[in-house]
Amino acid sequence: MASQLIARVLEVRALDTEHVYIRVNWLERPEDLRSGRRAYHGRNELIMTNHMDVIDAMCVNGSIQVKHWDEWADDSNDGMPKENEFFWRQTFDYAYTKRLSV
User: Fold this and answer.
1) Residue 36 CA to chain centroid, in angstroms?
2) Does the N terminus or the C terminus of the chain have fewer Cβ atoms within 10 A?
3) How many domains does the chain have?
4) Does residue 12 sit within a domain?
5) Ramachandran region of residue 76, left (φ > 0), alpha (ψ -120 to 50) or beta?
6) Residues 11-49: pLDDT tens digits?
7) How many angstroms separate the CA atoms of 6 and 67, rounded?
8) CATH code for the domain in which residue 54 is found
9) Which tens digit of pLDDT belongs to each residue from 42-83?
């Protein structure tokens, strides 16, 4: 799984059945960002970015559930992510500031 790219699907469009495209925004692993993995990052934690691309649907090799976790919310989206769940709680501004959210 470590070599696979992970993205959130924003839109699917097709010219015909053989030309299907997906607009995505990418999730990054903390170690793939310049700031690197920090002590508080969970094992399956990802960082949501505003880096968007349009990709050919034939590039997709599967799906994965990625939970958004708001650690500051009272209900906290059903609590902390379980050990085997992929989740994101921070964002990275790829387009402008190149900074990780707090």
Assistant:
1) 16
2) C
3) 1
4) yes
5) left
6) 999 999 999 999 999 999 999 999 899 999 999 999 999
7) 13
8) 2.30.30.490
9) 999 999 999 999 999 999 999 999 999 988 876 655 678 888
